[in-house]
Design a protein that fits this description.
Layout lengths: L1 H73 L1
Length: about 80
């Protein structure tokens, strides 16, 4: 009787461990997907900022060219 009770407890404990293991694996997969999505979004953000910086640099160069042309035409 005692052995049967211990076997039942062991089986119950094993079932709980199996459920928790599956739950942990599922959450880890979700976390990995979230981390990958974050990395992708972060890269897109960096690329967009780099693109803005390039555009601002180009605008500043054009402004400088316009100012230089305006000064040359005044003389």
């Amino acid at each position: 009787m005692r052995i049967e009770k211990l076997v039942a407890q062991a089986n119950s404990s094993k079932k709980n461990v199996d459920e928790e293991t599956l739950n942990t694996i599922t959450i880890q997969i979700e976390l990995d997907k979230t981390a990958e999505e974050f990395r992708k979004t972060h890269k897109e953000r960096r690329d967009l900022i780099k693109q803005w910086e390039t555009i601002i640099d180009q605008m500043q160069k054009r402004d400088n060219q316009i100012e230089a042309s305006a000064q040359v035409s005044l003389f």
